[in-house]
């Protein structure tokens, strides 16, 4: 078994917080285990909870469209969430739940060793970049931490509700494309 398979199997059995009692299944993450770019969302929603894959609902379709716009698709990146189990009624994860789930993301990070991390929405951005990160004010800007570049942008589900932010979100993806070129030395 590869290290990824082992991690996935252990994660799927996680009972570290109460969310596992109300969700259907643990949503571990998908994509290329050698990806240079890691996308992190908030937590699974209803569709993800049923299908076991991140971003498979309407927001996921928008994410796929934005990836396609810069020549990317799911098979070339890795996508996961900061919390792996669906919170009831899609409420924000509690700090205790985020904390309990963090070791899984840390292990995924260690195996992947991404060069660039894109945080989708406030929850992931505040967890990964800075606790007071403002998506509205700071979206699309790259900051380097321990040799890894981080960027926070709008959550796809938020873009479905607030379409006026779509041009800014698309611009963030164009900035991502340029950053991939700069950091990874190629385009997709
Ligand atoms: N929203 C998220 O943050 N993650 C998903 O996987 C789906 C919706």
Brief synopsis:
This protein is α/β, with parallel strands linked by helices and 188 residues long. The protein has helices at residues 3-12, 19-22, 46-51, 58-69, 95-112, 122-128, 135-138, 156-161, 166-184; strands spanning 30-31, 37-41, 78-81, 116-120, 142-145, 148-153.
3D architecture notes:
The mean pLDDT is 97. The chain is globular and about 40 Å long. Strands 1-3-2-4-6-5 form a 6-stranded mixed beta sheet, with helices on both faces. It is an alpha/beta fold and 188 residues long. α1 (3-12) packs antiparallel against α5. The chain has helices at 3-12, 19-22, 46-51, 58-69, 95-112, 122-128, 135-138, 156-161, 166-184; strands spanning 30-31, 37-41, 78-81, 116-120, 142-145, 148-153. The two termini are 30 Å apart. It is 46% helix and 14% strand. Residues 41-45, 48, 54-55, 59, 81, 157 line the site of uracil.
Helix and strand layout, with pairings?
Layout: H1 3-12, H2 19-22, E1 30-31, E2 37-41, H3 46-51, H4 58-69, E3 78-81, H5 95-112, E4 116-120, H6 122-128, H7 135-138, E5 142-145, E6 148-153, H8 156-161, H9 166-184
Helix pairs in contact: 1-5
Bound molecules: uracil.
Uracil binds next to loops.
Keywords:
188 residues; single chain; binds uracil; six-stranded mixed β-sheet; globular; alpha/beta
């Amino acid at each position: 078994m590869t290290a990824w398979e082992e991690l996935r199997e252990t994660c799927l059995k996680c009972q570290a917080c109460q969310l596992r009692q109300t969700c259907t299944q643990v949503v571990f993450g998908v994509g290329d285990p050698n990806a240079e770019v890691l996308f992190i969302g908030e937590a699974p929603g209803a569709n993800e909870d049923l299908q076991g894959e991140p971003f498979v609902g309407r927001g996921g379709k928008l994410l796929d469209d934005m990836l396609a716009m810069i020549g990317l698709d799911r098979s070339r990146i890795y996508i996961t969430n900061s919390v792996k189990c669906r919170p009831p009624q899609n409420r924000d994860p509690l700090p205790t739940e985020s904390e309990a789930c963090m070791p899984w993301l840390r292990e995924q990070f260690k195996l992947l060793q991404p060069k660039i991390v894109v945080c989708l929405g406030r929850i992931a951005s505040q967890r990964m970049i800075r606790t007071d990160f403002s998506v509205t004010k700071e979206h699309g800007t790259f900051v380097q931490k321990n040799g890894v570049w981080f960027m926070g942008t709008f959550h796809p589900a938020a873009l479905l509700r607030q379409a006026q932010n779509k041009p800014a979100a698309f611009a963030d993806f164009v900035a991502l494309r340029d950053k991939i070129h700069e950091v990874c030395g190629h385009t997709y």
